[in-house]
């Protein structure tokens, strides 16, 4: 689960298989090859201003990592009904795995050996409204 607080314990573990023959479409909810976490529905406004960091440890045979921070409006949003169910992109970036060491020298993944991939997403300055989540 996502949280505004730093975890007090070690990170959890997700496992999935990404198949290049089955690219990820725009709507990804429920796919077994896309890990997804959510915050609880907010009961008060939350101002998020920071540089989000993706910190991933993965064993792969080759991959790119797409990380998105998305605002999720509930299916029914009485204040503005047109926003019901809307997914609002807030911050996102793509990390090209073959350039994890250097942009000038691409390299193959060490197959199935856990590697750390840490990268910043673009600056974030967003007000999350009550009744939404992300």
Protein architecture, described:
This protein has 134 residues and is an all-beta fold. It is built from no helices and six strands. It has strands at residues 46-50, 53-58, 64-72, 87-96, 115-120, 124-128. The strands form three sheets. Strands 1-6 form a two-stranded antiparallel ribbon. Strands 2-5 form a two-stranded antiparallel sheet. It starts with 45 loop residues before the first strand and ends in a 6-residue tail after the last strand.
Shape: globular
Structural class: mainly beta
Strand order of the largest sheet: 1-6
Question: Which stretches are poorly predicted, pLDDT < 50 over at least 5 residues?
Answer: none
Total helical elements: 0
CA-CA gap between termini = 10 Å
The proportion of residues in beta strands is: 25-35%
The sequence of SSEs as H and E is: EEEEEE
The residue fraction in helices comes out at: under 10%
Instruction: From the alpha carbons, calculate the radius of gyration and give it in angstroms.
Output: 17 Å
The biggest beta sheet reads: 2 strands, antiparallel
Number of strands: 6
| Average residue-wise pLDDT | 79
Please sum up the structure shown.
Helix content is 0%, strand content 31%. The chain has 134 residues and is mostly beta strands.
């Amino acid at each position: 689960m996502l949280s505004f607080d730093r975890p007090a314990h070690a990170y959890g573990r997700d496992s999935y298989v990404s198949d290049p023959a089955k690219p990820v479409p725009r709507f990804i909810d429920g796919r077994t090859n896309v890990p997804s976490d959510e915050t609880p529905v907010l009961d008060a406004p939350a101002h998020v201003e920071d540089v989000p960091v993706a910190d991933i440890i993965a064993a792969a045979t080759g991959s790119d990592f797409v990380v998105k921070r998305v605002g999720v409006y509930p299916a029914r949003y009485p204040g503005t009904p047109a926003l019901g169910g809307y997914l609002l992109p807030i911050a996102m970036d793509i990390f090209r795995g073959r350039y994890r060491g250097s942009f000038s020298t691409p390299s193959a993944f060490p197959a199935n050996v856990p590697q750390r991939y840490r990268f910043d997403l673009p600056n974030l300055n967003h007000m999350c409204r009550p009744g939404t989540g992300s």
